[in-house]
Structure formats: structure tokens, C-alpha cells
Write a structure and sequence with these properties.
Blueprint (H helix, E strand, L loop, with lengths): L1 H23 L2 H7 L16 H13 L7 E2 L2 H9 L3 E7 L4 E6 L4 E4 L8 H7 L3 E5 L3 H33 L10 H4 L3 E3 L13 H15 L1 H5 L8 E5 L6 H12 L3 E5 L10 H15 L3 E6 L2 H4 L11 H15 L7 E7 L7 H4 L6 E4 L5 H10 L12 H6 L6 H17 L7 H13 L10 H20 L5 E6 L9 E5 L2 H6 L4 H22 L9 H16 L20 H28 L1 H14 L1 E3 H9 L1
Parallel strand pairs: 1-4, 2-5, 7-10, 7-11, 8-9, 9-10
Antiparallel strand pairs: 2-3, 3-4, 6-8, 12-13, 12-14
Helix pairs in contact: 1-6, 8-10, 11-13, 17-18, 19-21, 19-24, 21-22, 21-23, 22-23
């Protein structure tokens, strides 16, 4: 080690010497880096101008061994020129400075020249040789930068050599880097109180993992029948669905040690560190078997290894190889169950997913209507709720929400309640919190004219009335003309849960979607006239065109096109394109006429709903139903 440091020190010293030689042997650099003389002439008057040079020469002779270039005042320089004591002059630094050489080859310099137009004439009249050398400042700067970059690269290279040498010489015992007990967080918890009762909304995944608990509790009963304990269970699904909570519930129900680590904790810059940490983890787990190892975000180490056309990562590949060996290698697995969580199971290595390593793949899905209600009740236990709060309506308004989203919703509702100086969380606070999460904060300070309010109110009323009066369509849950985000107003619907889960939509339902989307534009035409329609329906029309095109070209819902799938990326003849366009227009026009007749037949309801929206800005599900029933 000392030898390496000595070599590096000599290398730096040589570079420093090279820099000095390069700078001081260059004439331009010599002018910049020459030693500056500290001599100043005495303020006492001299009897003869020749004594000026004589006195300076005496100073030079006394300091000849120091190689000093003396400073010279401009008046002294002119006097020396006029008395034929100056032989040569060199103008440099854009003619702002002069180096002068006298008859005895002594050098003087003038660091600042006045703007004297007669200087060159004086020099020529006294037969002084004149040389001009302009400095290239950019070249000087580039030379400086180049020199220091080379100097820095040499230092970094030397440090890298020392670091690599140290790491190679101490593989397996490198202090503070391969000390796995310090670098990986082995979160061992033997007193986990989480149970399956704390897990809501994901019953199918819970059933899968209950069998794992039975294996851990009654392993003898299964082994007598020739069954073996599962080596691993991988939990996959969207973020926030409760994968980590499920793993803790398994450990809590089985009452076994629980190791919790993150996939990113195994990865380091030194190749072999991650593999060593995997060995340490499993060695510790074997001492406490039976136990559970939970690896969160396993895709950090388990993604597909490099192959044809794929980049290689030696550290991650070695870590994955070690994990594969520990889970199902030569020594087998003694009572250790590995539970891993990821939301990117599609990028995991196939060797990791095969039976014998991860025997089971459990998909943790978004909760359904009942699951969302159970989760809302769970996160409402420690919160004061109003007596008339309707969790059923809230769960219908939150399709696609995960458990984490619902927890955040109740927390936002509690914050909003405290901000409004209320003591109970009501439907209004939860509804506003939901709008804030999904649509953005309400624009409080926006000034809206009465004309714009009327326009938006009739537009949203058109959507709501067509949706409410169309059979088998979704339920209207809220209508508002309060601007949020980029929307001037909104009509919210609660989709049918069975239809949403199955993903099967009938032709009548798709036509109803088109009719409801056209309701806003049609209401504008009826009330304000066709010449006063606005661009507010642009997103509605975009949705109308997309659904109608899919019905004709993808879903086989056109009599003329038939039951075929037409890929728009492939070549389509002009005749077929014309038929497709005609079918789309026919479908949209039929929905348009349906919505227009519906609104014209209920014009009084349209006026009343718009008037109520202008007064209150927001109408709830109950208020809208009462208005329709009356």
C-alpha cells in the first residue's frame, strides 16, 4: 500500500514539474508568469536622465542571480529611448505592455501604456527595433484547462488503481464494504401482531396465503402425505394493494420469525457484494427456521439476465444466481419460505419464477365494491364520522382505488374537516377530498361571469339528464360547475360493479355512453342556439369518436362491416374506409337524435337543474334524485 502511495506521489510531482516546464519555456507564458520586480525608483529628482538606467543596472547587477525583470515608468522609458539606451522593444498583450532591452541586454517592462499616438514615431526616430506579439487569450485559457484536466485525470486514475488493488487484495474481508451484517438491514421481528383480520378487500389472495400458514403450523400433516412446503410465493399486483401487509399477516398468523428486506439493499458497486449478502441472509434464516423471508421490490435483483441484445450487469446477475442457489440449489431449502412482492412480474427472470423456487404466484388485485367498503370501514374506526355518512356511495364512487388510495382518501377528509373547524367527518368532506385527489384542488379565487356559469350549468345538466333517463346506465353521483384542474364543470357517475369487473359491455351500453357524452353539446344547442356552441365539448366529442370507431372496426357491431376486426395500421381500401366512415357517422347521428329528443321532452327539468346548479354550484346524488322524482 505504501509503495502504491509513493508511486502516486512521484507521478503527481512529475506532472507538476512538466506543467512548470511547459509554462515557463513558452514565451507567452513567460510573460505571464515571470517574476515581478519590486523595485521602485526613488522620488528624489535625478540630475541626469542617464542616471536612471545606471541606477537600474546597479540594482540588476546586485540581483542578477535572481533573474528579475525590472519595472520601468513610462517617463523613464521615453527618456531612455531619447538617450539611445534602448535597443529593442516587444509589444504584447494587445499592445498594452512592453518589454524593453537595452544595449547591455538588460530587460525592463512596462505593465501599462498610455494612449500615446507618438510612441511609435519616437521609437523609429531613435532607431529602436520594434516587435509586436499579440497574445491569444483563448489559446492560453485552453492550455490551462487542458493542463489541469490531464493533471486531474492522472490523480483519479491513480486513486482508482489504489482502490481496485485494495478491493482485490481483501475480497471476503474488506472492512465496511463487505461487512454484510452492517450493510443489509436484517429486520427480524418475532412479535408480529398483524393477522388476516387486518387485511381487507383482497379475499382471493388471502385464501391462497392461508394455505402457506397451514404448512408452517402443521407441516407434519402435509409431509406424511408426501407434500412439500412451498419454497416461495410471489405477490404481484398494482402498488398500494397490500402486498407487504399480506406478508406480515402470514408471519403473524404462523408465529414464526419474519425477515424483511428490500431488493435494492443487495446491490452495491462492487461485484460479489450482493451475493455475499444473500448468503448471509439465508445463513441467518436457517438458524431460526422455520421462518419467512420477505423481499420487497424483488425486481431490483430478479429482472431478466443479460442475453442476446440485453445489457449485462455483473453485480445483479451474481446476486440473482446466489438467490437461485439458496432457494433451490444443491443443499435444498430447510424450512425457509421466501415471499416476494413486485408490480413488474413481467420483467422477472424465468429461472426465478419456475416451480421449486416460487411455487405460487398470487395476484393481489384492486378491491371490488365490497372490498372497498370494508377498507373504508377499517380506516374509519379511529375517525369521528357523521351519522348520515354513506360509505356505500363512497365505495361506488371509487372504482379502481387501492387500499392505500382509500386510506389516503379518509386522511384527506379528516384534514379537510379540521381545516373547516368541524368536529365530525361528513359526506361533503369525503366528497370534496375525493374530488381533490382525482381532479385537483378547486379554484377558489377564479371569477366566473354569469353567462359562463349558465353555459357550464346547462352543459352539465344535459349530461346528467341523459345519463339519468337512459335505461341501464350508470348512476349520477354528483354534478358540479366549480372549476377543478382543466375542467369547468363535471358530472360524475358510479359505474355498475359487475359490468366493471367483467369488462363486458353491450352494444346498448356503448351507445348510451355516446348519447350521454353528446348531451352537453346538445343542451348548448337547444338553449343558446347552434351559433353559440363552444369548444367545451371537445373532450366529449373525442370520446364519442373513439368509442364509435371501436364499435365499427374492433367490436363487430356494424351490420355493413360485419363481425371482423379491422386494424387501422394495416392497409385498408378506399371503399372500406368510406363504409367505415359512413357507419361511424350513422351510429353517432342515431345517438345524437336520441339525446336531443330526450332533452326536448324534459326541457323543464333541464331549466330547473341548471338554475339549481347556478345557485349551489354542486348538487349531490340525493338532491338530483329528488329533483327528478318531483
Amino acid at each position: 500500500m505504501l509503495k502504491k502511495i509513493y508511486i502516486l506521489f512521484n507521478l503527481i510531482t512529475n506532472v507538476y514539474c512538466f506543467t512548470n516546464i511547459y509554462l515557463y519555456n513558452n514565451p507567452l507564458k513567460l510573460q505571464k508568469y515571470a517574476l515581478k520586480a519590486s523595485y521602485e525608483l526613488s522620488n528624489q529628482p535625478l540630475p541626469d536622465n542617464r542616471n536612471i538606467i545606471v541606477n537600474i543596472r546597479e540594482k540588476i547587477n546586485s540581483n542578477r542571480n535572481q533573474n528579475i525583470i525590472q519595472n520601468l515608468r513610462y517617463s523613464e522609458f521615453l527618456s531612455a529611448v531619447e538617450t539611445d539606451q534602448i535597443d529593442k522593444t516587444l509589444f504584447y498583450d494587445n499592445n498594452k505592455k512592453i518589454i524593453a532591452i537595452d544595449k547591455e541586454n538588460n530587460k525592463y517592462k512596462l505593465d501599462a501604456l498610455p494612449n500615446d499616438p507618438d510612441l511609435l514615431k519616437i521609437l523609429r526616430d531613435n532607431n529602436v527595433d520594434i516587435a509586436i506579439q499579440n497574445d491569444d487569450n483563448n489559446l492560453i485559457i485552453i492550455n490551462y484547462i487542458f493542463t489541469y484536466i490531464v493533471f486531474g485525470l492522472i490523480i483519479l486514475t491513480g486513486l482508482s488503481i489504489l482502490s481496485n488493488t485494495n478491493s482485490f487484495n481483501s475480497i471476503g474481508g474488506m472492512p465496511n464494504l463487505l461487512d454484510n451484517s452492517k450493510n443489509i438491514n436484517l429486520n427480524t421481528n418475532n412479535n408480529i401482531t398483524t393477522s388476516f383480520d387486518d387485511v381487507m378487500g383482497i379475499d382471493n389472495a388471502k385464501i391462497e396465503l392461508e394455505e402457506v400458514v397451514q404448512f408452517l403450523k402443521e407441516s407434519d400433516r402435509f409431509t406424511e402425505l408426501g407434500a412439500r412446503i412451498p419454497r416461495g410465493v410471489i405477490l404481484e399486483g398494482p402498488p398500494g394493494t397490500g402486498k407487504t401487509l399480506l406478508a406480515r399477516a402470514v408471519a403473524g398468523e404462523a408465529q414464526v420469525p419474519f425477515f424483511s428486506v428490500s431488493g435494492s439493499e443487495f446491490i452495491e458497486m462492487f461485484v460479489g457484494t450482493g451475493a455475499s449478502r444473500v448468503r448471509t441472509l439465508f445463513e441467518t434464516a436457517k438458524e431460526l427456521a422455520p421462518c419467512i423471508i420477505f423481499i420487497d421490490e424483488i425486481d431490483a435483483i430478479g429482472r431478466q439476465r443479460g442475453g442476446a441484445g440485453l445489457p449485462n450487469n455483473d453485480e445483479r446477475d451474481q446476486t440473482l444466481n446466489q438467490l437461485l442457489t439458496e432457494m433451490d440449489g444443491f443443499d435444498g431449502n430447510s424450512g425457509i419460505i421466501v415471499i416476494a412482492a413486485t408490480n413488474r412480474a413481467d420483467i422477472l427472470d424465468s429461472a426465478l419464477l419456475r416451480p421449486g423456487r416460487f411455487d405460487r404466484r398470487v395476484y393481489v388485485d384492486i378491491p371490488n365494491l365490497k372490498g372497498r367498503k370494508d377498507i373504508l370501514e377499517l380506516y374509519s374506526k379511529n375517525k369521528p364520522l357523521d351519522d348520515n355518512i354513506d360509505l356505500d356511495l363512497i365505495s361506488r364512487r371509487t372504482p379502481g382505488f387501492s387500499g392505500a388510495d382509500l386510506a389516503n382518501l379518509m386522511n384527506e377528509a379528516a384534514i379537510l374537516t379540521a381545516r373547516n373547524n368541524l368536529t365530525m367527518i361528513g359526506n361533503n368532506e369525503i366528497s370534496n377530498a375525493l374530488d381533490r385527489i382525482t381532479l385537483g384542488a378547486q379554484k377558489k379565487n377564479s371569477v366566473i361571469s354569469l353567462q359562463k356559469k349558465e353555459l357550464v350549468a346547462y352543459h352539465e345538466a344535459g349530461h346528467a339528464i341523459v345519463g339519468a333517463l337512459t335505461p341501464n346506465y350508470d348512476t349520477v353521483t354528483k354534478i358540479t360547475i366549480a372549476p377543478r384542474g382543466n375542467a369547468g364543470g363535471l358530472t360524475l357517475f358510479a359505474p355498475d360493479e359487475d359490468r366493471l369487473e367483467s369488462g363486458l359491455y353491450t352494444k346498448d351500453y356503448l351507445k348510451s355512453i355516446i348519447s350521454v357524452a353528446l348531451g352537453g353539446r346538445i343542451a348548448e344547442e337547444i338553449i343558446f342556439g347552434e351559433q353559440e356552441i363552444t369548444t367545451g365539448a371537445s373532450s366529449d366529442l373525442e370520446r364519442v369518436s373513439s368509442i364509435a370507431k371501436q364499435m365499427v372496426t374492433e367490436f363487430g357491431m356494424s351490420d355493413k362491416i360485419g363481425n371482423v376486426f379491422i386494424d387501422s395500421n394495416n392497409y385498408i381500401s378506399l371503399d372500406t374506409r368510406a363504409i367505415i366512415d359512413a357507419e361511424i357517422n350513422s351510429l353517432v347521428n342515431s345517438c345524437y337524435l336520441y339525446s336531443k329528443n330526450l332533452l326536448l321532452n324534459n326541457i323543464d327539468l333541464l331549466h330547473e337543474l341548471a338554475k339549481l346548479l347556478i345557485e349551489k354550484e354542486t348538487i349531490t346524488y340525493e338532491e338530483f334524485n329528488n329533483l327528478i322524482n318531483n
